[in-house]
Amino acid sequence: MSRSGIYAVVVVAIVVLVVSSGIYFGLFREKAEEKEVPPKSESTPSKEVGAEEATNKVLEYMNSYLKTQGVEAKLVGVEEYKGLYRLKIDVNGRVFEVYSTKDGSLMFDKASPIPISGEGLSKEEIANKTIDYINSVLKEQGMPEIKLVGVEEYKGLYRLKIDIGQGRVVESYVTKDGSVFFPQAYDTSQLYEGFDAPDSEVVNVKFFVMSFCPYGNIAEEALMPVYQLLGEEKVEWEPHYVIYGKRYCEILVQRGNVPDMDSCRENYCIAKDEETWYCSMHGIQELNQDVRELCVWKYYPHDVWWKFVKEVNQSCNSRNADTCWEQIAEKLGINLEQVKKCQAEEAISLLEGETSLNSKYNVRGSPTVFINDKVYRGERTPEAYKNAICSGFKVPPKECGETLSGGGKSPRGSCGG
């Protein structure tokens, strides 16, 4: 694994090594976001059960997810590897490796070799060297450091508790010789049971994004065909935006991303007063675009909003949005002066509403989707979103029987969180 690969691990909150588009990777990252795994235990040994039984646990876990897409994981081979089992798995003709503890209770979908020699070192020394290496890569990229909170022996590995900022602590693993880093473990006892929204006559869909978060844009693109299929009589659609407060700037200043609070306020935020700030992860132009999209949703037919957002996502970015949006709006018949007036006069009230919903639903990352107020963490494809939304109807409309194509790639990353 290259240094840039390690960088990707940390940027996406340690839990995602790379942005993968295959069936398998998308399915399992859903569970990683949903649950904390494994349960806490001090120096828990791995009770070996034999390669066959351990492998069966892993395959059962994987196939509980994969069956929803009509495919199956099959074992190609298994071998011992640094106190673990390394499994070669075939999914739909694609062969890749996963790893499991000797008791089969934990699975790892990605291993990252790191340049550490742990011979003769304690677990604390190995953990610190692992964090130091990751931070050396982050420093090159101008990213804030992560911090080691604790380390313990767990099932033949060292389990690291890592502070990645904004009060979030994640668990990662490293082999006892310090040579291989595992960003995320999956509890193989947590079989996938599918998504079922609470039932209602009209289904409510709230989706929270950042206007220039690529993962949020993918979610919007996948939701659009569902909107076109089900319309607004059957589904109440609510686009919302992930907004941070003044604390976000305090963190950026503490970590050296910006020189001071004034600079952060100018480049990331709109302030109501000295204490109430509304900030966006990718800067002030993203925040401005969030407000413009809220204005378009408020004052124009929602079909226009979907077209506007789609074209902005394709043509603009967080560095040019304040000018780029205008040509798109004019083409779609959106009155520029009306949107600018809304932005000037209603930005604070609109952002107050978004912040209130962010707090109510504990939203921290883009995208976050709620269906009848139940969080959805499944695949980000039109068909998957349609099925999840249709699960919320007391009596599903006939449109739920239609199959939506497209969206084969479904990366499981997020911005923030």
Model description:
The structure is a single chain. The protein has 417 residues and is of the alpha+beta class. The protein has two domains: 3-187, no CATH class; 203-243 and 280-416, 3-Layer(aba) Sandwich (Glutaredoxin). The chain contains twelve helices and 18 strands. The strands form five sheets. A five-stranded antiparallel sheet has the order 1-2-3-4-10, with helices on one face. A five-stranded antiparallel sheet has the order 5-9-8-7-6, covered by helices on one side.
How far is the N terminus from the C terminus? 25 Å
Principal-axis shape equals globular
User: Helical percent range?
Assistant: 25-40%
Question: For the largest beta sheet, what order do the strands appear in spatially?
Answer: 1-2-3-4-10
- Note the run of SSEs as H and E: HHHEEEEEHEEEEEEHEHHEEHHHHEEEHE
Q: How can the largest sheet be summarized?
A: 5 strands, antiparallel
Strand content is 15-25%
Give the number of domains. 2
- Poorly predicted regions: 1-46
Number of helices: 12
> Structural class, from helix and strand content?
alpha+beta
- Count every beta strand, where a strand is a DSSP E run of 2 or more residues: 18
Quaternary assembly: single chain
Radius of gyration: 23 Å
Roughly what is the average pLDDT, rounded to an integer? 86
Topology (SSEs and partners):
Elements: H1 3-11, H2 23-34, H3 51-66, E1 73-81, E2 84-91, E3 94-100, E4 106-108, E5 112-113, H4 123-140, E6 147-154, E7 157-165, E8 168-174, E9 180-182, E10 186-187, E11 203-209, H5 214-230, E12 235-241, H6 246-254, H7 261-268, E13 269-271, E14 277-279, H8 284-299, H9 302-315, H10 321-331, H11 336-360, E15 365-366, E16 368-371, E17 374-376, H12 382-390, E18 415-416
